[in-house]
């Protein structure tokens, strides 16, 4: 066998070189920071990081905390609903918009705009709308629907669902955009073939288009999942974790303890637990998805 | 030199107040680098501060208050400004309770700006008149009036259901029901016996009873919307710190006539204070250190104290100041401040981070707020939770 | 029959549009009211008149600290930051996606999944160590520090988007271009990029929005005079112990959202169909 | 009324690119129509229109009694093989084939039987589990076929379904299609470029050019009596020799040489008229005498040899069976029967006489 | 050493799907190699490997003196026509054609000349501004051709480049390719299913089956002396008649009928040996006497007619010129020369004698 020329060797390495900076940086930062955070979680850090080793004490505190348990449960409820509804709605909107709609540009912008607005202020508007005394409930009752009830925001058991509503409102436009881009990338001719095969429009989407958008689903799922897990602004702006700490999620828990209450060690422990939980769910999925997408 | 100042006074009157300080400094030939971060009563600002300190780039001064000052000082990042304090005789113009908060191991590390009184009751006299009730001075009266207001179809108590507001209300109830000593023992010294005492039961029962007079839409409501309810006459009264006054005034209401400010029931002889202060960080550049000291001096100057507090709605932290320009509520507040300072019933506000370290305060707040929001939780449970929260380090 | 379908489609689209627009409506009418109206009136009521005072104030005279120049200065800071940040992260993401799908090598998928998992790291974990690192490399409190952080944090998502889009591009095109003598970059620029418009738009929307609306990094990593617009907005709207001016807050929020909206409208046009029509048979 | 009637169908792209310029075709139930024509003449476009994937700019399409011009594809009961295959990339071969049946609610067991049947017929049994991406060109084309053949539609549309197959397989597939058609008698429209397919499969052939049907008739008609020069040249390989000349007494004068014609032709083209003298390569043979010419090229294809001969009347291609002993440069004499001559008008290029 | 040497190249997919099982081919500079073989036998895979788009599991590929097995495609100086076209959908036809030149830094003016040249040659001048999406199947295929032909590479690879063209155009294109090759003498590998293309274009033909080269020789070799039953059946249409029988004195006994063979064949196959008696359809004619049989099918293709005859020795296809007067059901007698007979071993299916 011959040895490839220098130019050929460069060409061979070029893809790796191009990828290298992104990967090296991501690794250094992401995994470096994860490790650092892991270390903090077994330290006595309070207001500022320090490196006095205290073993698993922070984890013990964490798992005795009722608030943390509530946060974990909320994350579960929120993620499932937010991802599920967000995907479904985003996909539905994308499909509807894909029907050669005249006002597509306008509608698309309407669905997307919630992304553009910072939750710093939108949260206020949502609080008003969801507040039974000011918003929808009030309005409907004024219009004569005396029995109309919509008071989830002030009900500790239901408040987390209002966070879902606002989250879906904010994100499904982007999901729509992702799906729309996917739809627009589908080869027209296979749609034609399906029409000939007698598939109805819903069947075409369900059996042909959506399955061939598997990578798009993967993107969407990753995006929504990470929004869900990191959702912080949303909760802070809408309920700030309230009533009480009924709508606390791990991100707000961690922020509050690490930064507001000077319990960095505890915050770090919560971040580690969160990551570990995510890893348990996401890593197998990532693995199988990337395997099966290889062509 | 240059001073970079981290604060969360960003809008309206506060910003004007901060500008006054900036002007003073500039008059002394220093430049002012403004680092304003609003939000969550300084939560965001604290986050920024931490990362700035970690990156080795601390600002000259940062708005820090209460026991947090001690915590920061314990990290060894704060500067000693005793020379300024001595020159300006801070020890004599500040009430000792306040001065102690500003010191770490006997040295001044921060300059106080203002005093907020937290244990206020704001009321709409017109509504009270309509309902035939009078502004209460004790908790018993409070419930009588509340009942009357309720009968008149008015929401008796305007409340915003956010944990810090729940906690603010709790603090006023604790002070009113338990008295100053109880308050100090339970919420400042975090004495377990006191926290588990029968008085605590009473406090919690009263606290829960107050909730019965709030509307069901309270959760999540901002404090100023609650104030607006009082202004509009939808609600009769509100338990809130003196910043609420700003809302009344902004709505064109006149103190004493359109709205009443009174001490929270049973706390007329006491004063829960919330003092804003600037911690001074260790700096390397000499010129900047000079500017920093000038800043400390300027903060405590009578001129600034007056301008600032007129804008902010609070009262000067200096004793013995001329209050001619202040309104009646402020005058009342100031009088109580001076009186209680003498009678040792001037107590730090636990809800506003003046009394105990943030970790414990936060944990107690969680427990209080949970009790407030969950009608199922028994008083005994709540008491146990609060007591165990108080042990958080 | 066809008309019934259309009617249902439009009906659904309309209902959702209303749901999406409701908060916007509330914000808009509030921004046009004065504070008296807001305190006294109903949430959904139309304003008494068109009153743009709040908008003017939000833009140029509201206080956000000791300065009372409104959002204006923050706005330009954000602009200066977002353009390089979006450009760099999008470019890198596109290149990464291209390598990961069309120039695979052993282990590239594994590398990618590691990178992807990183997106789940809570942002708050980043703050302190990152400030320390930026302090070491001398980028703390500067616009470039902020840009660096945004690029780093956005990479995984942009790479994901492009990778998953490029997977669908026929490999034959790349092969044909290789035979035509095009190298790695030329294939990317001449063949792959022109076929990427929809995903470019999506990535642009995502990155632009995320970076533009980011508050936490913006407030922590920027310098005193490079603070982005969210910090300004936050300072306007998020005061807890002083009088609230909801009309100004709402106007400010909308002003802050304008560039993003503009991006949506302009970029949205490029959601085109049939980019790969006629490429290969099979 | 036929099984499929296409009436004055026109198709225009972006306002001024006229692809179909008024197509009229009518076939009976069970007929097998072959569409041929040069690349780009609009065959696939016409099929799309019949299938309902594209709508005509004007004109109507009827299937049976029904006007389907504006009917959705799924309501037309058509099976089609796409020139570009258009396989579903996310499904394996078996699923690709079964999809059309599934959409029509055929029970699973029957679907499986149908898949097995067509897979056998198309020799792709071993590929059923593969995705299209892992198939060769010809295998993909067979899957595309399979998708259509699994069904039992009212109308089959095939767009060059065998173009990527090897000759052997193509013969087998052709036989399969023929048998299938004989069994089911499903009306079929079939586009092909293969003359053998056209001639052996079709009941009728439509020759299209430039968006117009040039001739529509039985295979024999088209081959033996091409209506225009275009059709004559288009069908048959190598193409018919076309010699331009002038009608003269007893024949046609081409470049000074008189080529004999049939009496009927002489009657149809009065002397002096510009005509085109057409002669299929396979109708010419080498003889001791006749039109003399020099061999310029020899192309042995195996069973026969194509010989290009330069004669006084112009270049002529001759198709001879087997090997040819002559060499390039040799002089030969060409002979043919006047029966084999096709005569066309020199101006209109339309067929004359006979 | 040749211009292209492929040495023991193997290709295996996912561990156990063996596509190429050791291919050895060597062609000289300027040679025109035709690759034929049944669909799915690995032709495209082999081309990909030559082009460097895929790498062999084992074996080496040399172009000229250079081992290019691990060389990048762009450094091999190869132009290729893909079976699946692979047009750049974002570029118009002219840009598609010019891209390869541009990448090789050919000046603009020259590029334009090249585009004009190939566009004329491929008859796509009027399409230069169109995007691939707005082209017909055959037009796309011609653009794919144009992209390769515009260049002047060291090696041309064509993967069924004419399959979607009509017969007339195909003849013209074939002629163009032939001329081009004669002019430039560029080494070429050409995959086709068209026998005429294979026989007329190629200097040498490689017949592949199941990942193995069955025979590698000149067109005449392949046609006249097929090395195996597979090759014999694969080349020629209709396929060679294969009659299984036993060698006997003076010939081969098939189903009790003795079919005469050449003396050499008799020598090669001792009596009693199982053999296969091969006879091309075009070598058989109707005669007054000979093997009797009944006509079961008549397929007129225009220039000739395929006749299936059921005889005592089995079914035999006969290819006759022109029309046939006989009808289905008629009894005919078949005759052929013993020179035309191919004999193969019944077990190994290898050629025997001659
Ligand atoms: N990714 C793959 N995995 C498994 N088998 C594959 C893959 N790609 C191709 N094959 C198989 O490899 C064989 C050779 O394919 P190739 O495309 O070379 O055939 P071909 O000779 O060009 O056939 P055709 O004439 O039909 O184009 C085929 O049987 C095909 O099914
Ligand atoms: N979108 C379009 N815009 C303009 N012209 C088009 C478009 N699509 C197809 N055409 C043209 O329409 C003509 C007919 O195309 P069609 O696909 O029907 O040809 P065809 O007869 O099937 O040819 P082939 O045998 O090459 O497949 C072609 O000349 C083609 O260039
Ligand atoms: Mg076509
Ligand atoms: Mg192939």
TrEMBL record, chain A:
Gene Ontology annotations of biological process type: transmembrane transport
Q: Cell membrane: is it a keyword of this entry?
A: yes
Membrane topology, record value: Multi-pass membrane protein
Q: InterPro entries per the record?
A: ABC_transporter_permease (IPR051393), MetI-like (IPR000515), MetI-like_sf (IPR035906)
- Entry's localization field: Cell membrane
Q: Name one Pfam family in it.
A: BPD_transp_1
- Domain of life per record: Bacteria
UniProt domain ABC transmembrane type-1: residue ranges: 72-287
What GO CC annotations are associated with the protein? plasma membrane
Q: Which UniProt keywords apply?
A: Cell membrane, Membrane, Transmembrane, Transmembrane helix, Transport
Residue ranges of the TM segments = 17-39, 75-97, 109-129, 158-183, 204-229, 264-287
Which family does the entry's similarity section mention?
Answer: Belongs to the binding-protein-dependent transport system permease family.
Name of the protein described by the UniProt record = Binding-protein-dependent transport system inner membrane protein
Which organism is this protein's natural source?
Answer: Sphaerotilus natans subsp. natans DSM 6575
From TrEMBL, chain C:
Superkingdom of the organism of origin: Bacteria
Its localization reads: Cell membrane
Q: Name one Pfam family in it.
A: BPD_transp_1
Q: What is this protein called?
A: Binding-protein-dependent transport system inner membrane protein
State the GO CC annotations: plasma membrane
Which ranges of the sequence are coiled-coil? none
Q: Which GO terms describe its biological process?
A: transmembrane transport
State where it is primarily located: membrane
Q: Which residues form the ABC transmembrane type-1 domain?
A: 75-267
UniProtKB/TrEMBL annotation, chains D, E:
The Gene Ontology CC terms held by the record are: ATP-binding cassette (ABC) transporter complex, substrate-binding subunit-containing
Alphabetized Pfam families for the sequence: ABC_tran, TOBE_2
Q: Which UniProt keywords apply?
A: ATP-binding, Cell membrane, Membrane, Nucleotide-binding, Transport
Does this UniProt record's set of keywords contain Transcription? no
Molecular function per GO:
ABC-type transporter activity; ATP binding; ATP hydrolysis activity
**Its domain of life?**
Bacteria
Every ABC transporter domain range: 4-235
Looking at the keywords, is ATP-binding present?
yes
GO terms for biological process, alphabetical: carbohydrate transport
SMART domains, alphabetized: AAA
Protein name from the UniProt record: ABC transporter-like protein
